[in-house]
């Protein structure tokens, strides 16, 4: 653990209500002179105009930036906030990019309103993760908007920069001991003053980059986006008046808060728990980190308790502001699909509890440059699982639940030289097209996206090949990568690349987790999605094979001799005839796999979504000529159900049913009037009031390495040999009620607990 530095506390943002901010009196905030509510038609027109303004700012980034990260993969976001920084509009791109801006604005108000002051025509640049940036590479521009000499609103825009200094190209340092090995954070500095860009600040910022021309254009895209939004807001104010627009902004926030609190009131009170096992925290690290998260819901508020998370370690840590933003990336789509995405309103009803110095609340000067693709991802996974478990207990909103989706990130950043000798750095975001988790009523979508980005996109292969000295051999769906279940989690993908049109070897930054321990948890008996991988084929004969039109379709077509590079191996050398293959993540499954519709299993087989071996081992399918034999499969499934309990064949259980006076804990488990838990399929008693229902289940433990949820033995990456896949089976009907990944001998996680009526 790194040693804390005196004085660093100044730069640690903390969650505050907007009314609790300490702002210098010299900065006057706009307050409407009349608080009469705006009529519904005017409200609708102005609120939609504000949303469109935020969207136009995002479009501006894409049109001005020359980086494929922006204009192809959309690794950015834009926001609008009220005078105190409460965000009332969030773009549909990387949601954590946007949500952190609220903390950035609030810190700026408290620490810059007096000196150097916040004035009309100013804009601030910031990428300090403790102040609130996601990580140093995600630089933000904050632009205050003034009306009648008073602070009226804020515009914010963030974008991932390819390189801002540090030990290695990309500024992502898997062997970083602390932040001083990475790009040094920049707290808010005034880069625009009186409407003019300050060249001294611009030069200071660009001087740290190995790609200053690219960084300069990216910076201008943020400045342009916030300028456009500022101009458009002034246009709306000119058309409708400052008071009217200010009242609409306040109504967006207040009405969204009220609707969100009402939504929470409709959901059951209770406590839900989830454990993420995160493998490896940096180069040479073979540890597994326990990340337990608890969610309490009481009436109209939510609390996420992260106080028991493992201590900060290595190069994968997240700051608390990033962790909050990642949790919000699950809260918004799962609980607010039909509400305005106004984080400033939603955060009024959400509390976060941290222990400073943990992997999800790292203290300065811990390494945090990799947090966005590492530990913070575990917060998204945990929040998705927790919220979905709560939704599973509410028939009204059960359809909104989602198993964990795209649970980790196979980092692929490739550098080298172009054919003219100039340096190149390519951040592939193919992995954003991961598998979406299964729903309670349908399969997850294959190669579709991730929770962090509602408008997720990936770059065209041809565009990437045009920009970089690379050749893609294939990019397609990865069979078996989605979590099995009655409804299958969506599959992830795979790709293979090699050097092209360059005389110099390349390097890839190997910097990922989720290759030893699956992190895409299933729900209600669904299995987790499969791990990811790097594979490397050395000295291939690809060019000779291409000449004879022999095109490989998978890494197994490329070579029989594949290396499995370390997941946190840092700089991996890629020779001119080498091929780097990656496989990325699917989503978790929902429900007992032995209850999957046989027509769906057969369809998956015919479409190549699953392999025949997977169909046999997991779904109990008996195949004749590659087609599911229905009668033989039903008999085989009965045998597999009985084997769960050590008995003979067990028939398929009855559909779930709820007896009078009972409540749902989820679709498999019912609570009687005094809170005792019963199997909803057969009525078997599982436990008394406040007891963990899992203690009444038959637990089937399988060493993780013996399951088909890993591509290679976990011992290739970690030292832990006691991780097991535990299945909780009803002793009465052999239905698979729930699953978890845990340590052998560990007590069952009491993952769902409703408050007494």
Automatic annotation (TrEMBL):
One GO cellular component term noted in the UniProt record for this chain: cytosol
InterPro entries: Aceto_COase_bsu/gsu, Hydantoinase_B, Oxoprolinase-like
An example molecular function term from Gene Ontology annotations: 5-oxoprolinase (ATP-hydrolyzing) activity
Protein name per Swiss-Prot or TrEMBL: N-methylhydantoinase B
Hydantoinase B/oxoprolinase domain: residues covered: 39-593
One Pfam family here: Acetone_carb_G
TM annotation in the entry: none
Swiss-Prot/TrEMBL GO biological process terms: glutathione metabolic process
């Amino acid at each position: 653990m790194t040693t804390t530095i005196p004085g660093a506390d100044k730069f640690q943002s903390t969650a505050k209500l907007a009314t609790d901010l300490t702002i210098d009196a010299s900065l006057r905030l706009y307050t409407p002179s009349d608080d009469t509510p705006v009529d519904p038609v005017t409200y609708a027109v102005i609120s939609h105009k504000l949303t469109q303004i935020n969207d136009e700012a995002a479009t501006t980034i894409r049109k001005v930036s020359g980086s494929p990260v922006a204009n192809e993969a959309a690794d950015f976001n834009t926001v609008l906030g009220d005078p105190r920084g409460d965000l009332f509009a969030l773009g549909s791109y990387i949601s954590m990019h946007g949500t952190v801006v609220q903390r950035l604005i609030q810190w700026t108000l408290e620490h810059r309103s007096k000196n150097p002051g916040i004035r009309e025509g100013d804009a601030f640049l910031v990428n300090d993760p403790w102040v609130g940036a996601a990580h140093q590479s995600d630089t933000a521009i904050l632009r205050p908007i003034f009306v009648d000499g008073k602070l009226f609103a804020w515009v914010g825009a963030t974008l991932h920069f390819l390189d801002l200094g540090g030990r290695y190209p990309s500024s992502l340092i898997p062997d970083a001991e602390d932040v001083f090995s990475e790009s040094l954070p920049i707290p808010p500095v005034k880069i625009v003053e009186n409407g003019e860009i300050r060249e001294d600040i611009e030069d200071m910022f660009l001087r740290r980059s190995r790609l200053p021309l690219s960084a300069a254009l990216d910076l201008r895209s943020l400045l342009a986006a916030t300028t456009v939004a500022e101009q458009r807001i002034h246009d709306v104010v000119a058309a409708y008046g400052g008071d009217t627009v200010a009242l609409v902004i306040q109504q967006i926030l207040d009405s969204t808060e009220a609707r969100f609190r009402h939504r929470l009131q409709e959901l059951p009170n209770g406590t839900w728990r989830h454990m993420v096992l995160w493998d490896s925290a940096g180069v040479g690290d073979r540890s597994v980190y326990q990340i337990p998260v608890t969610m309490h819901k009481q009436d109209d508020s939510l609390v996420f308790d992260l106080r028991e998370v493992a201590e900060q370690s290595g190069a994968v840590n997240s700051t608390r502001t990033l962790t909050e933003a990642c949790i919000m990336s699950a809260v918004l789509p799962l609980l607010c699909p039909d509400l305005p995405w106004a984080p400033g309103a939603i955060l009024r009803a959400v509390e976060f509890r941290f222990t400073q110095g943990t992997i999800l609340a790292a203290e300065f000067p811990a390494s945090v440059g990799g947090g966005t693709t590492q530990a913070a991802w575990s917060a998204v996974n945990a929040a998705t699982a927790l919220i979905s478990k709560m939704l599973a207990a509410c028939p009204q909103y059960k359809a909104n639940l989602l198993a964990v989706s795209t649970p980790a990130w196979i980092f692929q950043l490739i550098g080298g030289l172009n054919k003219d000798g100039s340096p190149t750095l390519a951040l592939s975001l193919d992995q954003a097209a991961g598998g979406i988790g299964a729903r309670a009523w349908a399969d997850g979508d294959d190669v579709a996206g991730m929770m962090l980005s509602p408008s997720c996109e990936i770059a065209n292969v041809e565009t990437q090949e045009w920009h970089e000295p690379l050749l893609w051999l294939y990019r397609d769906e990865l069979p078996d990568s989605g979590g099995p279940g009655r409804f299958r989690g969506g599959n992830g993908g795979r790709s293979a690349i090699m050097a092209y049109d360059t005389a110099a070897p390349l390097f890839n930054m190997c910097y990922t987790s989720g290759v030893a321990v699956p992190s895409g948890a299933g729900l209600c008996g669904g299995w987790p999605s499969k791990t990811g991988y790097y594979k490397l084929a050395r000295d291939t004969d690809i060019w000779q094979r291409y000449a004879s039109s022999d095109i490989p379709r998978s890494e197994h077509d490329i070579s029989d001799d594949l290396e499995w590079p370390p997941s946190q191996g840092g700089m991996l050398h890629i020779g001119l005839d080498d091929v780097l293959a990656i496989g990325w993540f699917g989503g978790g499954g929902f429900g007992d796999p032995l209850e999957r519709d046989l027509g769906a299993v057969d369809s998956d087989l015919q479409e190549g979504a699953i392999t025949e071996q997977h169909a046999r081992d997991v779904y109990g399918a008996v195949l004749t000529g590659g087609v599911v034999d229905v009668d033989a499969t039903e008999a085989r499934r009965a045998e597999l159900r009985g084997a769960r309990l050590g008995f003979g064949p067990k028939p398929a259980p009855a559909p779930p049913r709820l007896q009078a006076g009972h409540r749902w804990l989820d679709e498999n488990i019912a609570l009687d009037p005094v809170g005792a838990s019963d199997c909803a399929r057969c009525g078997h008693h599982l436990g008394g009031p406040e007891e963990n229902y899992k203690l009444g289940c038959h637990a089937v433990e399988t060493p993780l390495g013996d399951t088909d949820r890993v591509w290679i033995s976990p011992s290739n990456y970690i030292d832990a040999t006691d991780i097991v896949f535990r299945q909780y089976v009803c002793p009465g009907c052999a239905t698979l009620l729930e699953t978890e990944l845990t340590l052998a001998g560990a007590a069952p996680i009491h993952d769902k607990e409703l408050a007494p009526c």
